[in-house]
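Good morning C.,

I know you're traveling, so I'll keep this short. The sequence:
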Amino acid sequence: MSNVTPDALAWEFLRRNPAYQREFADMQQINSTPDAMSPNALRSQWGLRFSSKS
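The tokens, ready to paste straight into the viewer:
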């Protein structure tokens, strides 16, 4: 675990979190489910940030 970066650890936590999995699945259905969470809401709720790698 000493070689794990903070972003890798955070991703591993989210990847295994049942609440995040449900909300992500809901977001994937956004076109067919009007009540699904928007991508911006998902990012905000879970504190997601994406770096722009050029």
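Safe travels,
E.
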